[in-house]
Amino acid sequence: MKVIILGAGLVGKAMALDLESEREFEVTSVDFNDEHLKELSLSGIKTIKKDLSTPEIIKETVANYDLVINALPGFLGFQSLKACLEAGKNVVDIAFFPEDPFKLDSLAKKQGVMAAIDCGVAPGLSHMLAGRGYSQLDRTRYLYIYVGGLPVVRQWPFEYKAVFSPVDVFEEYIRPARLKENGQIVSQPALSAPELVDFPDLGTLEAFNTDGLRTLLQTLDIPEMKEKTLRYPGHREKMLMLREAGFFSSSPVEISGQKIRPVDFTARVIFSKLKLNPGEEDLTIMRVMVGGEKSRNKIRLIYELSDRFDRQTGIHSMARTTGYTATQVARAFASGLIKRKGLIPPEFLGTDSKTFDFILNGLKSKGITIKEKVELDS
Length: 378
Hints:
The chain is α/β, with parallel strands linked by helices.
C-alpha cells in the first residue's frame, strides 16, 4: 500500500518511521522544511519538498497514493482533508481543526472513501476509550476525560513544552470549550474551571476546560461530558494572562507600517521556550472515566495511560501516542477491518471490538499500554 504523510514534524516523522518498518507499506513524506525531510531521507524514506498550503497542490501531491495521513497544522486541517477527499483518497487525519468535520461526511461517501478523523491521542485514543466504555454499559451517565502532554523537567517560565506547532497550542487556549451538562451542549471559555487532579506516580496536576470532545457531543448519548487538559500547576494562569492581554489574537495590528497578527508574533517570540528539543524528555498522561449502569449496578470504568519518552528510539511520548494511534488506524484500514465509508470519528472504532483490540494490541507492542479498572459508583 502506497501511503503519503502530509507533514514531517516530530509526529509526522514518528509515523513515517513506524510504517516504513513494515514491508507492506511504501511511505512518502511531504513537508516544506528541509531539515525535517533530510532526517527522514537518511532513514531511507522517500521525501517530497512542497508547500501544502493550497488545496490544488494537495490534490496533485496525493494523486498516486492509496492512503493519505494528514498531519498538517490545525489551521490547514479542514481544507487539506477536503482536498484529499475531493481527490478520492482514503484519509487518516490527525489535524486538530476548528471546523465541523461532519460537513465532509457526504463528500467522503460520494467519493466512496473513508475519512478517519481525529486519530491522535486526544482526540483519538481518548475517544476510542470513550466509545469502548459506552459500549460496555447498559446506560451511560457521564464521561470525563483528563489528558495532557508534559515535559519531564519543568522549566521556567512556562513549565510546558510542545511537540507540535505553537499556534496549535495557542488555539487550544482560545477556542471555547464545548461540554455537555444535563443533556445540553454548553460552551465555556477555554482555560476555565481549573481543578487539581492527583496521579500516584506523578503528583498533582492542574486541569482546565478545552474543546476536546468534538464529535463525541453528537455521536454518543451521554448527558454529562467534559474534557480537560492537564498541565503543571501555574501554566494555566500564564496562558490566561497572555490571552486576555491580546497576544493570541488573530486580528492584525499595524506596527511601523506593517500589519501583523499578534498570535504569529507571540509564536515567533516564545517558540524557543515552548519547543520540545531533541533529547528533552516528555510524558503523556490520560485518564478516561465512563460512569453508568450495568446489570442494574452503578459502575465506573476507568482507563489510564502513562507513557514516557522512548530513549531507545529518541521518539517523544506525544509523538508516540499520537502518531502510533494514527498508524494503527492505518494498519486497521490496510487489514480490511475498516470497511465503512464516509466520516469515521474515533469513537466508532472504539465501539467495534475487533478494531479496538487490533489498535490497542498494536500500541501495546510498542510499549503504550492502557490500564483498565472497574469500580462501584455512587
